[in-house]
Amino acid sequence: MAADHDTITVEVWRGAAKGAFQTFCVPRRPNQTVLDVVTEIQREQDPTLSYRFACRVGMCGSCAMTVNGRPRWTCRTRVSQAAADGDTLRLEPLRNFTVVKDLAVEMNAFFDKWRDARGAFEPAPQVPADFAVVPPATPARQAADAAIECIGCGVCYAACDVVAWDPDYLGPAALNRAWTLVNDVRDAAPKERLAAVAGDSGCQCCHTHMSCTSFCPKAIAPTYSIAGLKRAVLWGTLTGGAPR
Amino acid sequence: MTPVLFLAQRLSAVVLAAAVAVHLATIFYAVRGGLTAGDILARTHGSLGVFAFYSVFVLAVAVHAPIGLRNVIREWTPWRGRSLDAILIAFALMLLALGLRAVIAVCVA
Known about the structure:
Chain A is of the alpha+beta class. Chain A is 35% helix and 15% strand.
């Protein structure tokens, strides 16, 4: 199926762990996103193609895929960014995830690790008398703000080589979430959270390759969050406390 | 890697960075005019400074190398758990024993 400048040749992974690429030809359109291409294939050419999306505007974190070898959010990635004129677009499911079918991956293990890293806010046993005042200029608030905009798309997890080597490694997204809570002055379980991220597959496993930071579509730097956790865990180990 | 292992590996690395530099610089300085094994042993025998320096060096190696090896094995193989830790503790003790034996041979015997 040869593509001219009016069409894009798209190779799409079909199957699960075992499968093969299927080639499609899709009309090239102005400002077309990679998600537009997948949707056009599914609606116009092959309704059995499985993929996942929801918001289409970069909020929900559902549509991440491997696009020409790089993990990307497909709704905010234009074809012109991912493949130059005449280049083939190669779409695969995210690395480091179990493939359900075609481009859809199982995300349970990914989100289980958020739970394992104690990525949920722990309220104090007693309801505080008043709202907590957290001034925006405080270092802890700024550290939390820098990491808080994660949409859980899994791009960092797919980009991480340590996850590929050690499937138990908590991964950049879960550790980044834990870091936001370590810096949340209202949280009531800082010690427990540091213990959760300090295990054999915790923050110290990070090799600082910075793939997560390089690929994060929200421009978050999980590497810095993990470095913060390493410092906090180390300080907690030396002092027996739970530093903020 | 647990925090204690992480800390031990970093601290031993600091010791090793200094120890390796001193070790290499001493070798280059000492042999610049030609030196026999007998000359070296004549200088090291009974030297408390050499004994202390190389004992610390060996201890740092015995701490640092097994922790690093543990990380590599955990990342590149499915081997985990007590059997791995037991083997690496044995490896650490072996490094310590062989290293201290060499230190004693050079400084004491």
